[in-house]
Task: inverse folding
């Protein structure tokens, strides 16, 4: 113990107040455990402050502006002007409201909130350093701990986020003006969400991607629809190219230099460079090794299906515990961690965790693709409903995309779904529920859906898989 | 670390499948090489299957009570790399496995057994069960992957999880009870003073007591409401059970209206049913003697008969249910097959065995000198062989498919032995070629090993005729069930002094009651009687045995 430290004790110490940590802390407190939550930055974590919520705010704002300006086919004429400063201010308001809500919820549930940076001293002790030099620190003795320190954007050599013109996603979500030209390094989901957003806000967007397509984990027909739409919005793609360096350009802007595997070089004129090549776990300053916690070669903390680390009374949840790095997965893990600590029979036992990409159009996926189902030994049957056959989709003016259901032919169990199209992020929830409940195609097809809605497409896809579709030709 | 699958090894010559009677480990348990992981039942032998790995149990692929073909994967282990080369044949692997090192990076392996017990692993494969059922499974310590789903396509419901948990708990209890129980009396060496008549024993069990019923047994009062709130599923359940939902009593209300749940409907339907059952009592069970005799040496026989007759197929409060598994079920199946395949006729007779008693008394000290405890069984066996030689159809086997009767030229006698686990029938081969002392020693060895379950499956195969000695426990006559596909079985009562008529006077004499069941397809009553006569002749004049 450091001289001058104040030693306190707690049953559950939660490190990190993001969607994994604060949820774990609240549930632990609800379980009657004395719970302390240490957060060094802002409650709500990356999701609320630098990820999901701010990006969705900007996506909505930019989408609205774009839609209004492109609705002449409906007889709507408008020439919307975007006040980026105002939009960011509105976005910040949303974020503030949510983060203060998290803080209030924690307090209302009896969670002790401690601002600062926690690091492990040993298996049962952590030290919390309060903001900056001279602010003092305290030791906290804990019975159980939940590590929920999250992740941060990966920085690549030569592109320092400290430079004004080199952005991580955080800066891209805080910009109060729209750059004329933006070069995006990485065609993953963050790169693609911001590419569509900035394209709609009027920027010239260039995406450079090492691989030969965007959105690596998704199926070809899903990617194709998103890429085509992005191209319509003016996004320029360069595949097979890695960002090598930047340099200043004569016009006051910058040059983004890329290189192919064969050494072929290209240069793109940009004003800002957004590096979105993935995220890495945050464990610096945490000293997990002092507590005996093991990390894998990428720095993620290894956990079991009860979120326990190699040290049984220390759990890890959320991004720091590895894939899937999704806020909703983190929250689920947080609840499991708290309940396991409380002695409840909780476990990570989902059949599938849905994922959404807020591109234009959106992507929503859950469970197995046809190929994955086959690989798992199922005899998959697939049903599809294209949105251009959906009445509701037509009335929104967005008919790109489809709903696809994958099921087991023998039993009819729904195994997965891929949706690309309007509101895919919402629609995927129905398929997730079907999978978890062990619903069959018949169950989905025989559930009456509201008309006219996009959700009808899920029902139609189920009927299509059964060869009984009314509104599409059966496959 | 790797996951190694383990296949059901060949547990006995020619055994193609076995019933997995019970798991001795659960997922997450740490096991060492050679540690028994399961009990497998084949041809009445209970064989323990040893682990061939040091590691952690990853997954159980077979449910208790399931028949498993030899060579099927029954369990997988997470093993250290060093131990991964152990083969699948079940033989012990001599690899240099570190037995003590926990698997680094695998938190579950660091856990002790007790942690694993309350935490079934989440299924690594895909099981179709809703989250609520999964949670319940974890709560009840059930591996959801091991539950048989009753929903569409095998979907696992909460009820399925409960049923599985109850089944398992029952099995575990039965297992414990079995091992705690005082050993059952055995046919070979029981003190005659201890024996109790079958009739008395059954009387003590309370068969005469009224069967337990609900409350006073009067019909439950129908609620007779005009409106009732219930979910559609509950309404359907009521329809299915033939219950008027407005009659179902409930204390629960929603918005001021009576609200009926599934449980209410079921409770009401059950109450209705038991009220009806009481007014029209079940008929008395038929011919209990037959059942008792069939399992004469198995103590479980009495209780199962009693509970079946009392409950009449329904379980009422206070009843105890015991899983019908393992050896019990194997015996049951065998008995059922025999009884319903071979038309049984039982011939009864009594041998007057003064000379036999004398002969045994005379020979006993000599036997003891050689370390052999001479019982009557070897004499009976030799007498039976004498009978079989004269009446070869009693030592035969009917092969229906081939439309032929095989007259066996070997004289291998199965000796029924009551054990804690149930009836076992070890076989004494070539009785015709062995002396009395040799037979006495062999019978004793087999009976002992039957009781401690160390018999090999091969030692219970190949009998041509079977002897069951229910007299050691009690009773004079019974109807033994033929050890199918043999043609006949002889049951022995106790040798006791009974009144016999000699020269017009009733005098006490040691007698041996004999019950001979035959397959009437192969043997007629007259042949049976002649066979019995030959056996009796040899028992009454033991010197005749010298001619054999």
Result:
């Amino acid at each position: 113990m450091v001289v001058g430290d104040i030693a306190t004790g707690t049953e559950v110490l939660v490190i990190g107040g993001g969607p994994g940590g604060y949820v774990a802390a609240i549930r632990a407190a609800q379980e009657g455990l004395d719970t302390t939550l240490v957060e060094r930055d802002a409650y709500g974590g990356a999701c609320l402050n630098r990820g999901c919520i701010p990006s969705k705010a900007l996506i909505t704002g930019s989408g609205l502006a774009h839609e209004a300006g492109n609705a002449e086919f409906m007889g709507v004429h408008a020439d919307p002007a975007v006040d980026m400063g105002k939009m960011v201010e509105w976005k910040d308001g949303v974020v503030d409201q949510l983060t203060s809500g998290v803080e209030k919820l924690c307090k209302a549930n009896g969670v002790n909130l401690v601002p600062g940076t926690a690091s492990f001293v040993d298996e049962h002790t952590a030290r919390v350093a309060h903001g900056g030099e001279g602010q003092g620190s305290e030791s906290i003795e804990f019975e159980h701990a939940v590590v929920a320190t999250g992740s941060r954007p990966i920085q690549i050599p030569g592109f320092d986020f400290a430079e004004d013109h080199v952005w991580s996603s955080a800066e891209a979500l805080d910009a109060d003006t729209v750059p004329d030209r933006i070069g995006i390094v990485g065609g993953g989901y963050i790169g693609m969400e911001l590419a569509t957003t900035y394209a709609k806000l009027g920027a010239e967007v260039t995406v450079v991607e090492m691989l030969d397509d965007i959105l690596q984990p998704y199926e070809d027909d899903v990617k194709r629809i998103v890429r085509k739409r992005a191209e319509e919005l003016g996004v320029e793609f360069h595949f097979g190219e890695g960002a090598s360096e930047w340099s200043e350009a004569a016009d006051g802007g910058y040059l983004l230099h890329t290189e192919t595997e064969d050494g072929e070089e290209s240069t793109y004129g940009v004003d800002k460079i957004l590096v979105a090549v993935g995220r890495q776990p945050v464990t610096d300053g945490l000293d997990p090794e002092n507590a005996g916690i093991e990390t894998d070669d990428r720095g993620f903390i290894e956990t079991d299906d009860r979120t326990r680390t190699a040290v049984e009374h220390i759990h890890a949840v959320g991004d720091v515990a590895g894939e899937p790095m999704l806020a909703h997965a983190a929250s689920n893990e947080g609840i499991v961690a708290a309940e396991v600590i409380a002695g409840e029979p909780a476990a990570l036992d989902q059949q599938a965790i849905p994922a959404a990409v807020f591109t234009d159009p959106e992507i929503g996926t859950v469970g197995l693709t046809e190929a994955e189902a086959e690989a798992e030994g199922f005899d998959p049957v697939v049903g599809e409903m294209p949105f251009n056959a959906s009445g509701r989709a037509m009335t929104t003016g967005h008919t790109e995309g489809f709903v696809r259901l994958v099921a087991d032919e023998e039993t009819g169990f729904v195994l997965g779904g891929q949706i690309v199209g309007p509101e895919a992020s919402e629609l995927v929830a129905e398929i997730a529920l079907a999978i978890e409940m062990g619903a069959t195609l018949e169950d989905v097809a025989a559930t009456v859906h509201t008309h006219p809605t996009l959700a009808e497409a899920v029902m139609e896809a189920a009927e299509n898989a059964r060869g009984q579709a009314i509104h599409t030709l059966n496959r | 670390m790797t996951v190694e699958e383990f296949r059901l090894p060949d547990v006995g010559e020619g055994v193609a499948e076995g019933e997995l009677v019970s798991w001795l480990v659960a997922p997450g348990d740490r096991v060492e090489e050679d540690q028994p992981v399961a009990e497998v039942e084949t041809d009445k032998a209970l064989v323990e299957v040893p682990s061939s790995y040091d590691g952690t149990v990853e997954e159980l692929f077979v449910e208790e009570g399931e028949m498993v073909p030899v060579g099927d994967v029954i369990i997988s282990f997470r093993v250290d790399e060093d131990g991964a080369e152990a083969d699948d044949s079940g033989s012990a692997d001599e690899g240099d496995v570190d037995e003590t090192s926990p698997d680094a990076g695998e938190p579950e392996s660091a856990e002790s057994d007790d942690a694993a017990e309350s935490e079934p692993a989440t299924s690594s494969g895909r099981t179709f069960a809703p989250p609520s059922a999964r949670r319940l499974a974890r709560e009840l310590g059930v591996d959801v992957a091991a539950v048989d789903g009753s929903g569409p396509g095998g979907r696992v419901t909460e009820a399925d999880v409960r049923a599985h948990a109850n089944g398992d708990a029952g099995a575990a209890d039965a297992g414990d009870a079995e091992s705690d129980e005082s050993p059952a009396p055995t046919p070979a060496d029981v003190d005659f003073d201890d024996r109790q008549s079958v009739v008395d024993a059954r009387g003590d069990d309370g068969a005469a007591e009224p069967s337990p019923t609900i409350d006073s047994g009067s019909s439950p009062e129908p609620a007779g409401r005009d409106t009732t709130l219930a979910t559609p599923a509950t309404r359907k359940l009521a329809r299915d059970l033939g219950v008027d939902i407005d009659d179902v009593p409930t204390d629960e209300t929603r918005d001021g209206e009576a609200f009926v749940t599934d449980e209410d409907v079921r409770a009401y339907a059950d109450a209705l049913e038991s009220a009806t059952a009481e007014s029209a009592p079940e008929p008395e069970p038929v011919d209990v003697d037959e059942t008792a005799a069939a399992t004469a040496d198995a103590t479980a026989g009495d209780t199962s008969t009693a509970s079946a007759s009392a409950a009449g197929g329904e379980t009422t409060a206070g009843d105890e249910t015991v899983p019908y598994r393992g050896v019990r079920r194997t015996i049951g199946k065998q008995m059922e097959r025999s009884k319903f395949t071979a038309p049984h006729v039982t011939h009864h007779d009594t041998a007057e065995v003064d000379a036999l008693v004398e002969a045994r008394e005379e020979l006993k000290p000599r036997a003891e000198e050689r370390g052999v405890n001479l019982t009557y069984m070897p004499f009976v066996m030799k007498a039976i062989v004498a009978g079989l030689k004269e009446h070869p159809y009693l030592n035969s086997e009917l092969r229906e498919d081939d439309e032929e009767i095989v007259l066996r030229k070997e004289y291998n006698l199965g000796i029924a032995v009551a054990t804690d686990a149930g009836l076992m029938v070890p076989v004494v081969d070539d009785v015709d070629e062995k002396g009395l002392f040799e037979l006495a020693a062999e019978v004793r060895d087999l009976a002992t090993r039957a009781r401690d379950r160390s018999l090999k499956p091969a030692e219970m195969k190949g009998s041509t005729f079977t002897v069951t000695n229910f007299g050691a426990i009690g009773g004079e006559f019974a109807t033994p069930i033929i050890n199918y596909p043999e043609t006949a079985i002889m049951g022995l009562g106790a040798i006791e002094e009974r009144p016999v008529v000699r020269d017009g006077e009733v005098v006490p004499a040691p007698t041996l009651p004999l019950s001979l069941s035959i397959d009437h397809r192969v043997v007629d009553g007259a042949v049976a009687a002649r066979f019995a006569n030959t056996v009796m002749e040899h028992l009454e004049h033991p010197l005749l045995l010298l001619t054999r």
Notes: Chain A touches chain B through 28 residues (CB under 8 Å).
